[in-house]
Amino acid sequence: MKVVVLGCGGSSGVPMVGGQDGGGDWGECDPKEPRNVRTRSSVLLQMDNGEAVLIDTGPDLRAQLLAQRISRFQSIIYTHGHSDHVDGVNEVRAVNRVIGQPVQAYGTAGVLAEIEQRFSFVFKPWTPPGFFRAVLEANPIEIGQEITIGSYAFTFIDQHHGYAGSMGVRCGDFAYSTDVVELPEQSLRALEGVDTWVVDCFQLTPHVAHAWLDRVLEWRERIRPRRTILTHMGAAMDWSMLCATLPDGVEPAYDGLSFHLPDPPRRRLASP
Q1: Bridge partner list, 136
Q2: Measuring CA to CA, which residue among 196, 254, 202, 186 is closest to residue 225?
Q3: Is residue 6 classed as helix, strand or coil in its secondary structure?
Q4: For position 263, what pLDDT does the model report?
Q5: What is the tens place of the pLDDT at every residue in 176-194?
């Protein structure tokens, strides 16, 4: 399984719109360091058998796919309904055309309903042969459930995201926990034993809706992943500063980071 970090920025990306000359507000991030350029958070799982699963369709999706030379995936998992994780859904039309079929979308019933309310066309039945709009097929799931997507088992993990909820994702030895500020006890148990954990860390100091560094390190002591990768980072999180100060086994993500893990065992069960 190859994991590709398509984007690792917060809802405004880095740099944020603004700055004295209008060229961007970099906050504490060095604009000369290319790994400080962060698009909105998303990852792609590419299995050894050719199946691929995207997690979230942020507003930068087209540019992310082009930058990483990715043109196909069969499924999307939505962690929650916030704009920085949903608003690139229109770009799925290009993938529909490449694979010649609808893309399967997984999320809680509430999240899928929110997406349908904002993008009323996406779950309408496909009328072959062409794709004149993005075409997704809705697959409601429940948090805490384990289901098969394609040929592989995925577990969905309860997360608290300030005034809203979100959903973590585990597939084999990999877990992804974006947009989280609290992890209930059962969620910490569900993450135990994971090898590589990509986790929300918006800034160094406490935040009402996102994890910060000390909280991530506290969770890490409980979960004990071999590798912890910080994502959904804001403009206070300079890449070089983090590399110089983080403990061994913890690192900042950057757009385009990729790594390999063993494929989880394949399943023969059909998706619900």
Answers
A1: 103
A2: 196
A3: strand
A4: 82
A5: 999 999 999 999 999 999 9
Q: How confident is the model at residue 268 (pLDDT cuts 50, 70, 90)?
A: low
Segments making up each domain of the chain, as ranges:
2-141+156-260
pLDDT in tens, 35-49: 999 999 999 999 999
Dihedral over Cα of 68, 74, 77, 82: its sign: positive
What's the token pair of residue 64? 């992310």
Q: Give, in order, the Cα–Cα distances in Å from 139 to each of 51, 77, 97, 110, 233.
A: 17, 10, 21, 12, 30
Mean pLDDT for the stretch of residues 77-97: 97
CATH (residue range 2-141+156-260): 3.60.15.10
CA distance 22 to 89: 28
Rg (CA), the chain: 18
Q: How far apart are the first and last CA of the chain?
A: 23
Task: Give Cα 173 to chain centroid, integer Å.
Answer: 16
Q: For residue 216, report the phi and psi dihedrals to the nearest 5 degrees.
A: -60, -45
